[in-house]
Design goal:
The complex is a heterodimer.
Chain A (H helix, E strand, L loop, with lengths): L12 H12 L4 H7 L3 E3 L26 H10 L6 E5 L2 H6 L21 E2 L4 H6 L2 H14 L5 E6 L1 H5 L4 H12 L2 E5 L9 H15 L4 E2 L8 E7 L5 H11 L3 E7 L4 H5 L6 E4 L2 H15 L3 E3 L5 H13 L3 H29 L3 E6 L3 H4 L1 H6 L3 E7 L4 H7 L8 E4 L3 H11 L3 E4 L1 H9 L4 E3 L11 H17 L11
Parallel strand pairs in A: 2-3, 2-4, 4-5, 7-8, 7-9, 9-10, 11-12, 11-14, 12-13, 14-15
Antiparallel strand pairs in A: 1-13
Helix pairs in contact in A: 1-18, 3-9, 6-8, 9-12, 10-20, 13-14, 14-20
Chain B lengths: L7 E2 L5 H10 L3 H8 L5 E2 L6 H10 L7 E3 L2 H15 L6 E2 L4 H6 L2 H15 L6 E3 L1 H6 L3 H10 L11 E2 L8 H17 L12 E4 L6 H14 L3 E3 L24 H6 L5 E4 L6 H10 L3 E4 L5 H16 L5 H17 L7 E5 L2 H13 L3 E7 L4 H12 L9 E4 L3 H10 L4 E4 L4 H7 L3 E3 L17 H23 L10
Parallel strand pairs in B: 3-4, 3-5, 5-6, 7-8, 7-9, 9-10, 11-12, 11-14, 12-13, 14-15
Helix pairs in contact in B: 2-17, 3-9, 6-8, 9-12, 13-15, 13-19, 14-19, 15-16, 17-18
Classes of the chains: A alpha/beta, B alpha/beta.
């Protein structure tokens, strides 16, 4: 919990509750009852956030959510660079998720890394006769044409689960034949209520088919850690990992940004798991804790305040060498970060922002905004759970608005009333607000910029937020005639 | 849990092995293996039916596209349109989940229609499907009728619907089905026997270029032809930024759509994305129905304007003739920079025919022509087009049902000077070290290209300018000092 309860001028619980009431009034009764528990005014001192989450989308309201496949392909599997990820089913899912998450990767495309779209492109006959045989042939072809792959994943799309295909039997057979990872992931888009189940199903696949099956070539060391839940959006991993290395830790594997499947499989050998995206991977940390006794720690690399706190928290789990390194690193970057703040904060002080992103970033980025003098008046998630909201509540000021799985309609109403200087959300929301003359940054993809993690990332974040809010183009929106 | 296996060491690939594979994937031997694929598709250049249906559904006044099926599909389609146009793409879904898979999606549809109507007050809700309800066999006809009987939405609210299974055809077939459904629904009961309304209906087809649509309209205005563009996305996906967000911007007016059945003539400019719709029109619309080629390049634009002139008995105005003259002037001036250059081209059938036609006019060589899902009919039509130009067309080969990984093999083993296609082609372009000229859908990595027409005389000039200047930039950027010179 934050040390002091935050307050923002002009934001009151009463006004926020009134806004929620007004917004809900437009819904038919059944939908109103379903949506009401997902909206609330923040109460930072409450033990649990009162907003409900992880429930089904209300049909027709225009939710911004994706599906289990999106969570599996886009989030967990897609970033693993040395695997062939097969979108198993009709052509669309693979095409729409091809290169659209910005999980950058090293390697030679098509040779040692595979940022391509592999699909079985189901046709009517595959629906009628089943796709298992085709999948078997396909996996063999993929392995032959991309021989340096270190594994193949099979990500089921909706029809696969409906027609009774058994991808698990096929992958088991093919794993034996090919002698490398062939991992099934039953992440049909109709499963669950959001991307979140796709993360979980993927975690299950890693648990059942991957982890524990490889070992690192080098002997284990006392500073071996894994970086969990950083997907290298816009190069985030490449900005975060060097900091951990600079304080003396040895980052043995990354889940899953710019990730390598065999290193993921050997992660059970590390001493500590450091988790950034709690929502998508906390389950795997718990599995490794239970089975191999590996402790885990949440950390936050957005903005210097949170970075410093996180580094000190990490240091607590290590010896004096690491502790001393951490202080040195903090000292080294503090001046640089102050220069960034001195440049941008005067232009951003007192501005407000509203956030609506996936399952982590609304709460994790608050500190970075605050480092720049920006206050967050509203926050919500597409697919977060109760534990995410509980972690959000203390970070937010009293009476600010919290919205779970917000519909297009709600977001518009809330923004119209709260009048933030910036909205941070996704591609589907972006142009709605920009048409209304409201500055916007995509906070899933870093709006084609990044990295935003680490010290390097904060410099870019500050520049981007400043350019969004202070772009002279906004002054042209209203015609003088 | 799967059976426990022994813990294995890391797999290491030597630098030599990596180098070998890196070269191997560029080889003839690899190409053969690559073309022998039977099951695996890599980097397809097509999307699924409901995406095309959604484009149509956006193109009518006050229309809210409604996806019956999984919510994730809706998010994918919306994101795809927003990335391409940099515009909002508001559409909703009834978010079917496991219970929908078991019991069918009727309850989702009821609730979804009721909520969508109450919140967003659309004038029309076009409904189309994802693969999930198609696999389980949901009966849309009954479901929508029941939704009205039970009062979830008003009886009079137009609810055209189309079945758009993703495991059949591509986005262009979804476009076809949805457009047919829209027109069937909106025109019902509006046919007037006898006199026509004197207007032209234009069906642009699955076109991600709003500039093209505006250009067609300019032609009609210049010729004094009263028109209705059916599924008009120009103001939907090229809307103003003036401080007010309008969820419904532009689109074909519903009364104009209803009256379209009485038009003097209807023209489709994309045969392959309107096949069924045009068949239906032929039987039901009173006017003359014409399928014309996408007017790319000079001759196809001539053909388009002459057809308009003939159908409406209006002369082609001097200003358009002058425009033609200026375009030809630009082409003769610049021909030396593109003559004989070889191109790889990938895209939808109608666009491919247009691009190839333009290249042949320039004396360029359309060399690898690839449509990642089509049929023999298209292949034959393209081959016939190539045959019209023994000098430049004869070298071209047409590939259907091949993907962009096949295209990569073609460009690595039998090189070309440039590739034309959508953003997905950038991987081939990079590996083959050739420029990509972005035409088609989606374009996710450059700004504003959808605002510049590629059809008509002006479109030919902008295509030519883009291609030639890029070639010249490359010369200036890469030539050695002694070859760097003032003029080009």
């Amino acid at each position: 919990m934050a040390d002091t309860i935050k307050k923002i001028d002009g934001i009151t619980t009463e006004a926020t509750e009134e806004l929620i009431e007004e917004t809900l009034a437009a819904y038919p009764e059944k939908a109103r009852k379903k949506r009401a528990p997902h909206l609330g005014a923040n109460e930072p001192t409450s033990a649990t956030c009162a907003v409900k989450s992880n429930k089904k989308v209300v049909p027709g309201v225009m939710s911004q959510r994706g599906c289990a496949y999106a969570g599996a392909k886009g989030v967990v599997w897609g970033p693993i660079r040395d695997m062939v990820h097969v979108s198993h089913g009709p052509v669309g899912c693979g095409v729409y998720s091809w290169g659209t998450r910005r999980n950058l990767m090293e390697g030679i495309p098509g040779v040692t890394s595979f940022p391509l779209d592999f699909t079985s492109d189901f046709q009517e006959k595959d629906i009628v006769y089943g796709g298992d045989k085709k999948l078997e042939v396909l996996l063999r072809e993929a392995d032959e044409l991309f021989p340096l792959n270190k594994g193949l994943s099979v990500l089921s799309e909706c029809p696969v689960g409906l027609i009774g295909d058994d991808i698990n039997a096929v992958t088991k057979k093919m794993e034996a034949e090919l002698g490398k990872f062939v991992v099934p992931c039953n992440c049909e888009g109709f499963r669950g209520v959001s991307q979140s189940l796709g993360h979980h199903i993927s975690n299950d696949s890693i648990r059942d088919h991957v982890i524990g099956k490889r070992e690192f070539s080098e002997p284990a060391g006392p500073y071996d850690v894994a970086l969990i839940g950083d997907y290298n959006i816009g190069g985030d991993v490449w900005a975060a990992k060097p900091i951990l290395e600079e304080i003396g830790l040895n980052v043995k594997s990354v889940w899953t940004g710019d990730g390598e499947i065999e290193k993921i499989a050997a992660t059970y050998q590390v001493k500590l798991n450091l988790i950034h995206c709690y929502r998508s991977m906390n389950y795997m940390c718990k599995v490794m804790e239970e089975k191999w006794g590996i402790p885990w720690l949440e950390y936050n690399f957005f903005g210097p305040t949170k970075i410093e706190k996180s580094l000190r928290d990490i240091a607590e789990l290590f010896d004096d060498t690491i502790k001393a390194n951490v202080e040195k690193v903090i000292e080294k970057y503090r001046l640089q970060m102050q220069e960034v703040i001195d440049e941008y904060r005067p232009r951003l002080e007192g501005k407000t922002a509203m956030l609506f992103v996936g399952g982590l970033r609304p709460r994790h980025t608050i500190g970075a905004y605050e480092d720049l003098g920006i206050q967050i008046t509203g926050a919500g998630y597409e697919f977060a759970h109760q534990d995410d909201y509980d972690r959000t509540s203390p970070e937010m000021a009293k009476g600010t608005i919290i919205y779970d799985d917000a519909s297009e309609f709600e977001l518009e109403k809330f923004v119209e009333k709260m009048k933030p200087d910036l909205v941070g959300s996704g591609i589907k929301e972006k142009y709605v607000f920009q048409k209304a003359g409201i500055p916007f940054r995509q906070m899933h993809s870093w709006d084609y910029s990044g990295p935003y993690h680490g010290y390097e990332g904060f410099r870019i974040f500050a520049r981007d937020i400043d350019m969004a809010i202070n772009s002279p183009t906004w002054s042209l929106v209203k015609a003088p005639f | 849990m799967s059976t426990t296996t022994a813990v294995k060491p890391m797999t290491e690939h030597s630098a030599e092995e990596i180098e070998r594979v890196k070269n191997w994937i560029n080889s003839e031997e690899y190409k053969e293996k690559n073309f022998a694929r039977e099951a695996l598709v890599v980097n397809p250049a097509h999307a699924c039916q409901p995406l095309g249906a959604q484009m149509v559904a956006h193109g009518f006044e006050g229309s809210l596209p409604f996806i019956h099926g999984s919510q994730g599909c809706a998010s994918y389609f919306r994101s795809t349109f927003s990335r391409h146009f940099r515009e909002p793409a508001c559409a909703t879904s009834d978010a079917m989940t496991e219970d929908g898979a078991v019991f069918g999606g009727q309850n989702n549809l009821f609730e979804g229609l009721e909520n969508a109507y109450a919140l967003y007050k659309p004038k029309v809700i076009p409904v189309f499907t994802t693969c999930m309800p198609e696999v389980i066999g949901d009966d849309l006809t009954a479901f929508i009728r029941n939704a009205k009987i039970k009062g979830h939405i008003p009886e009079e609210l137009p609810t055209p619907y189309a079945n758009t299974p993703s495991f059949n055809g591509t986005h262009i077939h979804g476009y076809d089905s949805m457009l047919k459904a829209m027109l069937e629904y909106l025109t019902e009961g509006h046919k007037k026997e006898g006199a026509d309304n004197g207007k032209l209906n234009l069906i642009p087809g699955f076109d991600g270029n709003t500039g093209n649509l505006r250009e067609y309209k300019r032609y009609f205005d210049a010729m004094g032809i009263d028109y209705t563009v059916l599924a008009d996305i120009s103001d939907v996906f090229d809307s103003v930024c003036d401080g007010t967000y309008r969820m419904y911007s532009g689109g074909t007016p519903l009364d104009a759509a209803a009256d379209s059945i009485n038009a003097k003539a209807t023209i489709s400019l994309m045969k392959y994305s309107t096949l069924n719709c045009m068949k239906w029109l032929e039987q039901n619309y009173s006017g003359k129905n014409n399928i014309l080629p996408l007017p790319m390049g000079i001759r196809k634009t001539d053909e388009f304007l002459m057809a308009l002139s003939e159908m409406f008995d209006k002369p082609i105005p001097a200003e358009l003739k002058a425009e033609r003259g200026r375009a030809v002037d630009a082409m003769t001036d610049a021909h030396q920079y593109i003559h004989g250059k070889k191109f790889a081209v990938a895209g939808d059938p109608d666009y491919l025919l247009g691009i190839v036609s333009f290249l042949l006019e320039m004396g360029a060589v359309p060399y690898h022509i690839l449509c990642s899902r089509s049929n023999k009919k298209f292949k034959k039509e393209m081959e016939a087009l190539l045959a019209t130009s023994p000098l430049y067309g004869a070298q071209g080969t047409v590939y259907v049902n091949k993907d962009l990984w096949h295209m990569r093999s073609l460009c690595m083993t039998d090189p070309v000077d440039g590739i034309i296609g959508d953003t997905h082609c950038k991987w081939v372009a990079r590996d083959a070290k050739i420029p990509l000229f972005r035409i088609g859908f989606p374009i996710m990595d450059r700004v504003n290209l959808h605002r510049t027409p590629v059809i008509g005389y002006n479109g030919a000039v902008s295509l030519l300018t883009g291609i030639v200047n890029k070639f010249l930039d490359t010369v200036d950027e890469t030539c050695e000092d002694q070859w760097f010179e003032m003029m080009r």
